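Notes to self, GNAT family N-acetyltransferase:
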Amino acid sequence: MTDQPFNHPRWGPDSLQPVRVFSPPRYKAIAQGDVRKAALRDRDGRLVGHVWTDDRDAAGFLPTESAAGTTAASYVWVLMTECAARDVPASELLDPALYAPDYMLDA
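result:
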């Protein structure tokens, strides 16, 4: 060991400062009251999951345990992030037009 202070260009005092982390806008994950849901299907009509909303601030997607459900979850995450950024009310997330033409929402 040496009595010299630790000196490394990547780990100096300036490198250990707090960093702001960006978090995209999103809907709340916990519903406040009753929830409405609709089945989401792929172009072949296979169920890939359910979109849900409490018609207030919360919304989400529950994918099926399949590869198609995982793919749909990615699609819905991007869609919901974009809608939240545009201040689209959670109640409007059950609009089938939002998911077309890639998916069909049973409304």
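- The longest strand covers residues 47-53.
- The two ends are 69 Å apart (CA to CA).
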